[in-house]
Amino acid sequence: MKNAILMIIDMQQGMSWPQAGDRNNPEAEANIAALLVHWRAHHGKVVHVHHHSTEPDSLFWPNQEGVLVQTAFLPLEHEKCVVKSVPDAFTYSDLADWLKEQKSEAVVIVGVSTNNSVESTVRSSGNLGFSTYVVESGCFAFAKQDFDGQERTAQEVHAMSLANLQGEYAEVISVEEAMALLS
């Protein structure tokens, strides 16, 4: 596919801080960075999604360090940026219209957290009719208590979120399969 678009979600400094929580997939940043290098080398289009919270006590409250983009994922001037205040990057943004204007054949989604902003955005992408792919090792989640009060590891949260998405909203793929989409 010549027109697969890479979407990087919420790779901001606060996501790497200990107070964000116990997480899985420690190689996610390296995998996302490798995909970004690949996309740029092949002149692929990239969308950067950044969360700006409406909650003053959030790590992602505007105008503080947690909201800043991690250095490895700083957007280039010509790359699309979407700022959101809810998990879904499509809500209150021009993202769907922009993707249609690009005549995108596919959207490849990576970032954090798998069960929150990634899952929400992937569901909308699939529901809007975009061919959507999620890179399993290009996402991570945080440990969380389930509805019944049982503690779930970050890997359990990640795996369940990917299971929710696979087949119905997206195809879950590897880094190598993602790179092959833009070659």
UniProtKB/TrEMBL annotation:
Q: Does the keyword Protease apply?
A: no
Q: Where is the Isochorismatase-like domain?
A: 5-177
The entry's keywords: Hydrolase
Which parts of the chain are coiled coil? none
List the InterPro entries. Answer: Isochorismatase-like_dom, Isochorismatase-like_hydrls, Isochorismatase-like_sf
Gene3D superfamilies attached to this UniProt entry: Isochorismatase-like
Full protein name? Isochorismatase family protein
